[in-house]
Design brief:
GO terms for molecular function: DNA binding. Helices cover 51% and strands 9% of the residues. The chain is mostly helical. The longest helix is centred in the first third of the chain and has 21 residues. The N and C termini lie far apart (102 Å).
Amino acid sequence: MSLFKRGKTWWVSFTTPSGERVRCSAATEDKTQAQEFHDKLKAESWRVVKLGDKPKRTWDEAAYKWLMETEHKASHKQDMKQVAWIQQFFRGRLLSELTREVIAEVGEVKRTETSPSTANRYLATIRAILRRAALQWEWIEKAPFIRLYKEPKRRIRWIEPEQVKVLLDELPEHLVDLVKFSLCTGLRKRNVTNLEWSQVNLQRNVAWIHADQAKGRKNIHVSLNATAIEILRKQIGKHPVRIFTYRGRPISQVNTRAWRRALKRAGIEDFRWHDLRHTWASWLTQKGVPLNVIQEMGAWESTEMVKRYAHLAPEQFRKHAMVVDELLNDTILTQPEN
């Protein structure tokens, strides 16, 4: 059987002249496109065996292999979505045909549909696949240069404690606990809503996020302050597994109508749930907590991500600047008079 289906997707299967069995996804729900992909692969395998040509790999092969090798990534579902969109342009094309001009045209299509930032995410996926094809698999001599669009600097939105108080007064109780816990820990939304009793120790005042739940795929240690402990104790007995619930069921969505309406009543504009994490980091920075400590507590992999908060710590930096001031004064004061 040269073509068969798995779910809605067509797969190809054939035996090369050398006896090698080839079975892979055609990455399409269209039978005609799948047949064309099959015929192209089969003809290519014949040329390799009979004529000694070097295999000419297609985008489909590279994309599929890359997805299989990177399925451990936290963004795997998003990667699959991006590859599915790219398929409409690259399906069945040889990797050697994907020049910088061809790729730039695809990037421009996505940019007109969405934004430069989103287009860059798709271009980065193309770049990652082609780089692996060149550097690891040696399917192509060199990956083409891919120019990304200029992006505005990442926004840092945070609010003052007084604004938080107003917001909490407008929120329903189950969201109040979630917001306060987020501000106490700096955890990402999903790590808070999915938190289980097996991940906390109220005697030791700690919690932990497992590597497979973390964005960076590394275990996260969370030190719980008194407010966080109080919030957790309030949840005892509400659910046997999950901590944060609403009417007996685990909470999965927080960007609800109640959240948006509370923000509006509180007079807080342009504020996302993720900005609670920015608020946590901003407060710590302003209180003099070193950036490297904040990076460790917030489980940021890159120091560049934490440097976004550096401008909020002028007093902290002024204290260090005074070291030079003291040295200069000591030197001047100790100079002998003429």
